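agent> fetching stored inputs for the uridine-diphosphate-N-acetylglucosamine docking request
agent> found them:
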Amino acid sequence: MLVLHVVGARPNFMKAAPLFRELQKHSGIRQVLIHTGQHYDVNMSDVFFQQLRIPAPDVNLQVSSKTHAQQTAEIMSRLEGVVLEHRPDWVLVYGDVNSTAAAALVCAKLQVRVAHVEAGLRSYDRSMPEELNRLVTDQLSDLLFTPSEDANRNLAREGIPAEKVHLVGNIMIDTLIEMLPESGKHMPADVPPRFGLVTLHRPSNVDDPHWLREMLAELHHIASELPIIFPVHPRTRERIAQLRAGSNGLRLLDPLPYLSFLALQQRASIVVTDSGGIQEETTYLGVPCLTVRDNTERPITIDEGTNVLVGRSPKRIREEIEQVLAGKAKQGRIPALWDGKTSQRIASVLMRDRARAARAGSLGSA
Ligand code: UD1
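agent> prediction call returned; pasting tokens
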């Protein structure tokens, strides 16, 4: 069986890594790793491959940054030939980035079967490009692997047949559980005993100069009580530079490798973010998380975990941080099936499919 994985952006790499390694344990499976090149900086891409111990990609489509339409179109036109050349039995796509939707569309048109890992999440906010990517990818996928029950309910509501959907748990947590023991060795230097960790990169936050200036002022204010460490996404770095706003008092770092960021998350008093994956990682680690968005496609991190949506309100951010500093942080629990065995469950489904296809093949030829 030939399995082709398509990854492109930072949050894809920790989702593909455990499944790639799990499938290596099964005989008769050949794997091809395609990187679209959506993220291309060393510290947004290469360092993740090294730390997550996945081989260098077999093919890099070198698409890099463009408008959404151009990036999606380039990935599609460059990927088509690769899929035709390999004719895989399955193409695995991950998460909700432009590379995910572009790959699903290419495969669906070529009638090559696609499996979506992290299917069914919905923010119900179509102004988010990721929501459009999730909707398109799920409609086109032949197998949908979901992280939590809410995802299954969303897919049922959209008319996806139940037999295509498998509740397998959160694959990113497989990587977290595996890597946590060694993350301590990768703690950045000179980290204070208590600190808040911040990441912001969504266009809805960083492309609005007024709001970005307000956020930075609020973080600066908080930093007088709680030191702030802020690894900065390239887009955010650019926007902060354009603002020429003061960021003194905040420790701005380049984007960090997986293990260093994990070490910081585990030790942080609180995390302030607009990322999807970090909402889940903090829930697993039991670290309070404030999400600077009005909605989330990961409601389980609110219902069961440590996540709180604070929208665009500096006042809410300040109040919530004061609660945490007063020892009154929201408590949470680890959701079901976030247990490090998601990649095993996905591999079993693929193996069952292979066995079924082999039986059908031998019946057909009999
Ligand atoms: C993408 C995903 C987002 C994910 C994020 C994680 C989509 C629609 N968005 O957003 O869901 O949360 O990745 O990081 O797919 N850039 C660099 N070097 C890089 C990559 C990007 O400098 O290696 C800069 C470029 O200026 C680029 C900008 O970052 O224009 C945005 O990159 P892009 O891949 O378009 O989207 P992200 O914001 O990273």
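agent> quick read of the result: The mean pLDDT is 95.
agent> awaiting further instructions
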